[in-house]
Write a structure and sequence with these properties.
Blueprint: E1 11-15, H1 20-31, E2 35-40, H2 43-55, E3 59-64, H3 70-84, E4 89-92, H4 107-135, E5 138-143, H5 156-175, E6 181-188, H6 202-215, H7 220-231, E7 240-243
Parallel strand pairs: 1-2, 1-4, 2-3, 4-5, 5-6, 6-7
Helix pairs in contact: 1-7, 3-4, 4-5
This protein binds NADP nicotinamide-adenine-dinucleotide phosphate.
Length: 250
């Protein structure tokens, strides 16, 4: 049995690192010896998280990043490479979930959701791939959702973005074989983070908040899945993890 730890010393770039999965992942992975680069729009939050990691003896940088801006995403990845000398893992995690029925015509929400959840992932790939090709190693992990496997009313655009993440990641998996790059998707169900606050439709937001209150599990669940994926030996590529709260029907 190969129980080798494969997180220590890795350079891990995380988008959406100011909250929820991204924040907790940065903290956990740095405890395991990873060097982390945190990107998000909330500069003061990522700077505070990076400082706390550095104060504990870890290594972290914070780079203000809006994933809808490809230059900012490139700057995040390039800053990690400049500071730490390489990039081993990109976690395409930034995302929003502005659920609403199509008839509400929340067109601004649709556009933001597509820009962040799909284009943000593509910009991450564009930023990381040249470095990983040159290194002939790397790991690109993107966050989809149970909503990337099933569709329900109110979830048309969010599900479309999360299905897209899986499609993009599977094509990437097939294309990057010559470069020894691993690709993974993590598809969580309801997990306790700030995500429900990205729902802008009042009646929908109420229902989602109640659903999360009753069903959501701790964000540790995501971090355990992520650590499992990264931790495998380099010749094992765990391509998808789908998990839900045990109580979740959908
Ligand atoms: N929690 C769940 O139940 C669940 C289930 C399935 C999938 N997911 C997915 O998990 C991922 C992380 O969400 P979470 O649950 O951790 O929610 P969260 O606590 O709301 O965190 C979302 C993160 O995304 C960042 N973000 C949003 N827009 C951004 C932008 N334009 N540029 C850069 N960063 C941006 C936010 O930072 P700033 O606002 O500071 O930019 C924040 O750090 C998302 O892709 C979400 O769809 C979550």
């Amino acid at each position: 049995m190969n129980n080798q730890e494969n997180i220590k010393g890795k350079v891990i770039v995380i988008t959406g690192a100011s909250s929820g999965f991204g924040k907790l992942s940065a903290e956990y992975l740095s405890e395991k010896g990873a060097l982390v680069a945190l990107g998000a729009r909330s500069t003061s939050k990522i700077e505070a998280i990076a400082k706390a990691i550095n104060d504990k003896g870890g290594e972290a940088i914070a780079v203000t990043t809006d994933v809808t801006d490809k230059e900012q995403v490139k700057n995040l990845v390039d800053s990690a490479v400049k500071t730490f000398g390489k990039i081993d893992v990109l976690l395409n995690n930034a995302g929003i979930m502005p659920l609403s029925p199509l008839e509400y015509l929340k067109i601004d929400d649709w556009e933001q959701c597509i820009d962040i959840n799909i284009k943000g992932v593509l910009y991450g790939i564009a930023a990381a791939l040249p470095h990983m090709k040159e290194q002939k190693s790397g790991h690109i992990i993107s966050v989809s959702s149970v909503a990337g496997h099933t569709i329900s009313p109110g979830g048309a655009v969010y599900s479309a973005t999360k299905y897209s993440v899986r499609v993009i990641s599977e094509a990437l998996r097939q294309e990057v074989k010559p470069y020894n790059i691993r690709t993974g998707v993590i598809s969580p169900g309801a997990v306790d983070t700030a995500l429900p606050s990205s729902v802008t439709a009042g009646d929908v937001a109420e229902g989602i908040k109640q659903y999360y209150k009753e069903n959501a599990i701790s964000a540790d669940s995501f971090v355990r899945a992520l650590a499992y994926m990264i931790n495998q030996p380099e010749d094992m590529d765990v391509n998808e993890i789908l998990f839900r709260p045990t109580s979740q029907e959908l």
